[in-house]
Amino acid sequence: MYSLERSHLATSSKTIRPRLAVPVGDPAGIGSEVVLKALADTEITQDCDITVIGSRSHLNETYQHLQNQPNFTAQNYVNPNELPIKDIDLQSHITIGTGNAGSGEASFTYLENAIARTLAGEFDGIVTAPIAKSAWKAAGYNYPGQTELLAQKAGVEKFGMLFFGKSPHSAWTLRTLLATTHIPLRQVADALTPQLMTAKLDLLVECLERDFGIKQPRIAIAGLNPHSGEQGQLGTEEQDWLIPWLEQERDRRPQAILDGPIPPDTMWVKPSQAWYGAIDPTKAHDAYLALYHDQGLIPVKQLAFDRAVNTSIGLPFIRTSPDHGTAFDIAGLGIADPSSMKAAIQLAIEMVARR
Ligand SMILES: NC(=O)C1=CN([C@@H]2O[C@H](COP(=O)(O)OP(=O)(O)OC[C@H]3O[C@@H](n4cnc5c(N)ncnc54)[C@H](O)[C@@H]3O)[C@@H](O)[C@H]2O)C=CC1
Ligand SMILES: NCC(=O)COP(=O)(O)O
């Protein structure tokens, strides 16, 4: 199923050939490694033109270092000398496995460069390798993540973090939008408002139609409290505003099916069954709206850690990213799995081709 869809899109992208920028993320993490591994896959690179944004000398050093690891296999890596690289040299020494102000400065600069050149029309989209938010902070950049920098530079106020994962078992696709993202758990209930939820739902419905061709979406919306509040006994947000908001949204969007608020503990049962092919996938939803970061991302990573893709919706260009982080604990060991990075490039190609 997956390969059939790929070949269809490969055909449609033949004339399109997406131009993608790939900033390598935090140079102390696994970003360079997963980029060098992902770009060794000609099945992916034949469909697009990729420009890597990072330090050429650092990429060469990473490649040499990985060659000395016990599990090195030449065909799993592309030699950086064979890549188009926008070379931005490092301004300070980097210690592999330790994010710091220097590595934060570098990853911030790579992303800024990618955004500026994309906004200038040089690229159709950006596939970002992971950065460490703490390293950005150490470098003096106070952003919750790459998403917010992308939105700010693109001049958009409404944007969303949507995770996408295609099951290798059933070809069913899990799509999870987060209503709130990188904020402390203690602030979540106050951050959630009907206005915020409407903005996220607008983005999701638009994305499902434009990028996935789903005109009559079925969307599941999670509750916040245990048992969705149990009629107010275990929390009142559902009764106070979430249920009335959902009723208004159902009136406003008759073309959509909006189910919820679904008790968070059972929200992910059907997606899991659809993922493993235990139920007819049409019994699951086209997308899931989770109210906070871990409510949505625990199931995404449980099911699809090796292949899920983070997409930023609401931007004037495509942005995708692997679902994982900098993985400082395994940086430089040669054991980082590039599958999610590959999936991120593949999805960017498909989304550019569709648009
Ligand atoms: N898109 C992005 O830029 C993201 C950045 N981060 C950042 O990454 C840093 C580290 O975050 P963590 O919570 O530790 O998550 P992480 O995803 O970096 O690591 C979690 C665990 O998964 C493993 N892992 C991650 N990617 C892997 C891969 N490709 N192959 C094999 N094993 C892999 C790691 O070794 C670690 O044991 C943080 O600073 C965080 O802000 C986290 C998620 C996404
Ligand atoms: N947990 C998702 C994540 O950290 C992605 O953040 P961003 O850097 O893509 O904004």
From TrEMBL:
Its cofactor is a divalent metal cation. It is found in: Cytoplasm. GO terms for cellular component: cytoplasm. Binds 1 divalent metal cation per subunit. SUPFAM superfamilies: Isocitrate/Isopropylmalate dehydrogenase-like (SSF53659). One of its GO terms (molecular function) is NAD binding. Its EC number is 1.1.1.262. It catalyses: 4-(phosphooxy)-L-threonine + NAD(+) = 3-amino-2-oxopropyl phosphate + CO2 + NADH. A divalent metal cation binds at residues 182, 227, 293. Pathway: Cofactor biosynthesis; pyridoxine 5'-phosphate biosynthesis; pyridoxine 5'-phosphate from D-erythrose 4-phosphate: step 4/5. The active site is located at the dimer interface. Homodimer. Catalyzes the NAD(P)-dependent oxidation of 4-(phosphooxy)-L-threonine (HTP) into 2-amino-3-oxo-4-(phosphooxy)butyric acid which spontaneously decarboxylates to form 3-amino-2-oxopropyl phosphate (AHAP). Belongs to the PdxA family. PdxA2 subfamily. This is 4-hydroxythreonine-4-phosphate dehydrogenase. It comes from Aliterella atlantica CENA595.
